[in-house]
Design brief:
The protein is an all-alpha fold. α2 packs across α5 and α5 packs parallel to α8.
Length: 204
């Protein structure tokens, strides 16, 4: 048994929720320092002051642990209705950049690759992290459509995919700064309707 575990046992084992939170905090710290690929169960156990066996008591493998870090530590931020579509689109784009740059968005990309589409890991993430964020983003574009600022046949999901894809590619595929004037131009293209549009139901 790990000495730290023996000490914990002598002091009286903390409740499972407290111990679990301690391990999650250690994993989150290491994730911020080293990225997903740099996190190991050994390192998490050492940072949390527990044994590897203790970590495995809660999570079967690293992807499951990191998935719970994202699930429990990711804030889903709203985009307030300020009555100004252009301003709301800027806020939304900034949130996309922030999440993929400093949040857990990049980690999720690596997690998807590492889990090989494991529904036990990815299902909760898609349901509780991706879906709420996506619905907030959709609501911003829908508000713009309702105000008459955006085209009625705007392909909402295609626009969001383009924005996320650009930011993600600039971070990994072709590392390069995404300049503010580029973001502003993309927003203006959206406002002008120069973005994917949906087909009439009869055509689709």
């Amino acid at each position: 048994m790990d000495p730290s575990d023996r000490a914990t046992r002598r002091r009286g084992r903390p409740p499972d929720l407290q111990l679990r939170s301690k391990i999650l905090s250690a994993a989150e710290e290491l994730l911020a320092e080293s990225g997903y690929l740099g996190v190991t169960i050994d390192a998490v156990a050492g940072r949390a002051g527990v044994s590897k066996k203790t970590v495995y008591r809660f999570w079967a493998h690293k992807p499951a642990l990191i998935s719970d870090v994202i699930l429990e530590r990711s804030a889903v931020l709203p985009v307030p209705d300020v009555g100004d579509t252009r301003a709301e689109l800027r806020t939304l784009f900034d949130l996309v950049i922030e999440y993929l740059t400093n949040g857990h968005g990049r980690t999720m990309t690596l997690l998807v690759a590492a889990t090989h589409e494991d529904p036990g890991v990815l299902g909760p993430l898609r349901e509780r992290v991706v879906a709420p964020r996506r619905e907030i983003a959709r609501s911003v574009l829908r508000r713009g459509i309702a105000r008459g600022d955006l085209a009625e046949d705007l392909d909402v999901d295609a626009v969001l995919d383009l924005w996320h894809g650009l930011v993600a590619y600039r971070l990994s595929g072709r590392p390069a700064e995404l300049l503010r004037h580029t973001v502003d131009q993309l927003i203006e293209l959206t406002m002008a309707g120069h973005v994917p549009r949906t087909l009439p139901a009869a055509v689709a």
